[in-house]
Amino acid sequence: MYVVAALIIPSLVVLLLAVAVFERVTGRFGWAPWRKRGDGSGMSPLSTAGVEELESHFRGTKDFQRQMKQSSLMLREEESDGAPPRSRVDLDAGTANIVLRKQNDG
Description:
The chain has one domain. 52% of the residues lie in helices and 6% in strands. The chain is built from 3 helices and 2 strands. Strands 1-2 form a two-stranded antiparallel ribbon. Strand 1 and strand 2 (95-97) form a beta hairpin.
């Protein structure tokens, strides 16, 4: 019983390594069906998802990091967010308005 419990994590690591090698070999020839989509965009490899899940069990902050990444991908970035722009480029009019910073002597 103790031997089986001690070999679970190393077995998962070896399995993930085997899946990563399989994905690398089949990815070169386009044989991996889970990496294909109808719209042409590839999906995340299984080995990457497995390593992230394994890492989240050992590092408690990994789940929080993943949630923050997902929430940042959901947010839209606006030009008006952040600091006010000093310089503007208008491609339609063909003009560029560049404002230099004042240098502080001292």
